Amino acid sequence: MIEHLRHADVDKHWWDSLLLRCEVPMWYAQSWVLDIASPGWEAMVDRASGAIMPLTWRRRMGIHYLYQPFGLQQLGVFAPHYSDQLGEAMLRAIPARFRYWDIYLNERMGPMAFGDVLPCTQQYVDVLGDPAGQQAAYSQGHRRNLRKGEVHRELLTWAISAADFTELFRRTTGARYAVPAADIAMMGHLVSAALERGEARILGTRVGGRVVAAACFVEWQGRSIFLKSAVEESGQEHQAMFLIMDHYLTNGAGRSTVLDLAGSNTPSVARFNAGFGARSTVYLRLKRNELPLPLRWIKK
Questions:
Q1: Are 231 and 212 in contact (CB under 8 A)?
Q2: Local confidence band at 45 (pLDDT 50, 70, 90 cut-offs)
């Protein structure tokens, strides 16, 4: 039987043990990650099948709604033996008090006759454990940019704190995309906790003591995630992001077998990823609007 659990009723140890038994146990769905990204999250569970689904929610003007927390690319239903029927049943059992949904489902979940489903592009790079073979998959343009930047490779460092990374993100990517200050603060907390737990590392370029480019890589259960990155203009001049990605891939990516590039719906990002030999798959964005009529027309 599918159950809905309020936050206080979720046994975090039990939740995390169930997640590890699932076909695709994604880092984003760990209880501690959810606690930081969406305090008070709730859950759908099916004890018979072992299926779980976190409900990341907020309330505005008295209306409860489901949303995708900043930095958590995919959630949805996780199960040891997932089926489309199970996924749809879990979604249909979500309490009616959540009148509006805008969430991203994990890559295991296929198309369904439920709500409005929009495809999103996901990209991966297989980690070969062979530097020469890894670089052979790069595009000519990427190899050219790496040659240009080779003189700056000595500036790469793993000695970058969560605070340094968050500040760089705030003044570059955050400013460019008008990321709310609360989301940037949450991301900083999440990165700091991941570093403390040994589940993330930050690789970047430091010029004259100033961090000009950096990327945070999550490493968990044999899979790396390119969580977030940031680069300022001087970092671009040093070809810093090309060097960071190349260094990470050719040095084994923390013994991961795959580097998950965490989405690439922006064409320029997709091209950058493809230049490192990335392959593409699809994951889904699910929107559902059961708001009262006047609000339903406004919030489409």
A1: yes
A2: very high
Q: Which residue has the tokens 């709604």?
A: 65
The whole-angstrom separation of Cα 57 and Cα 40 is: 8
Helices (DSSP H) in the chain: which residue ranges?
12-20, 31-37, 84-92, 131-136, 140-149, 162-169, 175-176, 181-196, 233-237, 240-250, 267-274, 293-298
Rg over alpha carbons for the chain, rounded to the nearest Å, is 20
145's tokens: 């940019």
Residue 137 DSSP code: T
Helix (H) or strand (E) holding 64: strand 63-67
What pLDDT, in 10s, does the model give residues 249-272? 999 999 999 999 986 778 888 999
Q: Are 228 and 169 in contact (CB under 8 A)?
A: yes
* Domains recognised in the chain with CATH numbers: 2-119+284-298 (3.40.630), 128-256 (3.40.630.30)
Strand partners, 216: 202, 228
Q: Average of pLDDT values for 34-47? A: 98
Residues for the chain: how many in total?
Answer: 300
Burial of 281 (0-12, 13-18, 19+ CB in 10 A): exposed
What's the CA gap between 181 and 227, in Å, rounded?
A: 18
**pLDDT, tens digit, for every residue of 106-134?**
999 988 777 789 999 999 999 999 999 99
Q: What are phi and psi of 7, to 5 degrees?
A: -55, -45
Mean pLDDT across 38-54: 97
User: 50: alpha, beta or left, given left = phi > 0 and alpha = psi -120 to 50?
Assistant: left
